[in-house]
Amino acid sequence: MNINDSILVLYSKIWLEDYDELMQIFLPNFSTEFQARIYSYRRKEDRLLTLTGRKLLSRGLQLLNVKANIFDLDYNCWGMPFLKGNLIKFNISHSHQIAICALCIQGEVGIDIEHLEDIQIENFRNTYSISEWNIIQNSPDMREAFYRYWTQKEAVLKALGKGFNIPINSVKLQDRKARVCSKNYHLIEIKICPNYSCHLALSTLPFFGLNIYEIKNADIKNVGAQLLKK
């Protein structure tokens, strides 16, 4: 795999029956701050999704033959994680039963996935421009259109490295591109599971394209076992 010109995306589905094993065996290897963050989540699903996201990052680094410490990440002033002293850029997202991680070395990367829940779309009117809102309102599937735009905008804010510290309505969308804070981003839809919306935001398009891998549950456990041996 050409690390310099590719985007790597890995995703995995969580299973609650694996909760005790992953939490008791693998979580203690992470920093106390990360462990506290995990336990701050009330739902077991959210704890498992967050831990799985970190395991996907580790698996992605293995595929790219990159050595890095994923147990104790650094964070920028906006609270976004990064690999200290490493050119690899990554971003992690999760929703419902899916965790997903994107990695690249060229430019900035952000990814967002959302399960298509039933929500009061009207409550988010100020999130969208007039034209975006009109498209959502006139769409045959308003929920799908809402989440399509939402995941695009959030992926861009994550690629920017500031997350929701920047108002989401400041992201301007046009076709498969976005602009925020005087920066331009390319948008790519990632289709992995029904009833999910997922988008990737990139500051630079990869020459060799996009590589997507589903990491099965057994592979997640194998990653953890390999980490414990290091």
UniProtKB/TrEMBL annotation:
Q: What are the 4'-phosphopantetheinyl transferase domain coordinates in residue numbering?
A: 109-198
How is this protein annotated for GO cellular component?
cytosol
Superkingdom? Bacteria
InterPro entries noted in UniProt: 4-PPantetheinyl_Trfase_dom, 4-PPantetheinyl_Trfase_dom_sf, P-Pant_transferase_sf
Signal sequence coordinates: none
UniProt keyword list: Transferase
- GO biological process terms on file: lysine biosynthetic process via aminoadipic acid
MF terms (GO), sorted A to Z = holo-[acyl-carrier-protein] synthase activity; magnesium ion binding
Query: Pfam families from the xrefs?
Result: ACPS (PF01648)
Family membership noted in the UniProt record: Belongs to the P-Pant transferase superfamily. Gsp/Sfp/HetI/AcpT family.
Q: What is this protein called?
A: 4'-phosphopantetheinyl transferase domain-containing protein
Organism, scientific name: Niastella vici
